[in-house]
Write a structure and sequence with these properties.
The chain is α/β, with parallel strands linked by helices and 294 residues long. The protein contains nine helices and twelve strands. One of its GO terms (cellular component) is protein-DNA complex.
């Protein structure tokens, strides 16, 4: 079986259109349709129902979506392993991330790869999750490692969950809340708040749970939030990720009624990453796994 035919079928399912699938895959619509027909012949099943409104999978096609996705992923893994064993990683990989993922996930992976593959070059862009995802969708970034937004991904984007972390509050050790084991969102209603800037997942999370919070500082990074808390600016709202930005005389209190924050790897559904980007992506997932068990 030619794996490329599986890619074409999956693109048709995800876009709902042979024309859109052909544009995504960089081939003509007749060529894509012919390859899907050959796949149907090879598997001896009808995979797609075609109509003037587009295409959708038949029951047989629906049942084969996940196996074919695994087939495509397996081919990518083989290519990654081959490239890794040959030691020929070169070129530039463009990655986006929020500040915490750049420090805890992306930077360790870049350092490791640079040690063994000096021909690699990286462009790392920091920003809010929504901005990173927009750049991934536009093709300006190979992929991003972000805090998962509450809403679904934009059409054409895929999110791969990595790790989760609890949400809580940072307060000075002499703060009235510091003696508690845990707090709730309602406990924050009367306190000045320091959190990530507008447009971030943490900003949106805070405003979903606390009506009209008194946000006195909008920060660009988790480090700035912690520093501001240490200087008495307010109560800091963050997810708990271990970073190098730990500040003395500040404690973290879990919010017992807060949902955890999830980090994810975001990429285009039709992405055809370079071998170098593939190994970076694989090591990012491995690094997230290390953090999950640490």
């Amino acid at each position: 079986m030619r794996v490329e035919r599986a890619r074409y079928f999956l693109a048709a399912v995800e876009t709902g259109s042979l024309r859109a699938a052909a544009a995504r895959c960089g081939v003509s619509q007749p060529a894509l349709g012919q390859q899907i027909a050959l796949l149907e012949e090879e598997l001896d099943v009808v995979l797609l129902t075609r109509s003037r409104h587009g295409v959708r999978p038949t029951p047989a096609g629906q049942a084969l979506i996940e196996p074919l996705r695994r087939l495509v992923a397996a081919e990518e893994a083989v290519r990654e392993s081959a490239m890794e064993s040959s030691g020929t990683y070169r070129g530039r990989v463009q990655i986006g991330g929020v500040t915490v993922t750049v420090e805890t996930i992306i930077a360790p992976v870049v350092g490791r790869l640079r040690q063994y593959h000096p021909g690699l070059r990286f462009a790392v862009r920091e920003g809010a999750s929504a901005a990173v995802e927009a750049d991934v969708l536009d093709g300006a970034l190979d992929f991003g490692v972000v805090t998962m937004p509450a809403g679904p991904p934009a059409p054409g984007l895929r999110r791969i969950p990595l790790i989760s972390a609890p949400v809580g509050a940072y307060v000075p050790t002499d703060h009235p809340l510091a003696g508690r084991d845990r707090i709730q969102w309602r406990d924050l209603a009367t306190w000045p708040i320091v959190t990530m800037r507008a447009g971030t997942v943490m900003w949106e999370t805070l405003h979903r749970h606390v009506p009209a919070p008194d946000v006195v500082v909008q920060a660009m990074s988790a480090r700035t939030v912690k520093v501001m808390v240490g200087q008495g600016a307010g109560v800091g709202i963050l997810a708990r990720f271990d970073t190098s930005a730990d500040i003395a005389d500040v404690v973290w209190l879990p919010l017992s009624d807060a949902e955890p924050v999830h980090l994810c790897l975001t990429q285009r559904q039709d992405s055809r990453p370079s071998p170098s980007a593939l190994i970076v992506r694989r090591l990012i997932r491995a690094r997230a796994g290390e953090l999950a068990v640490s």
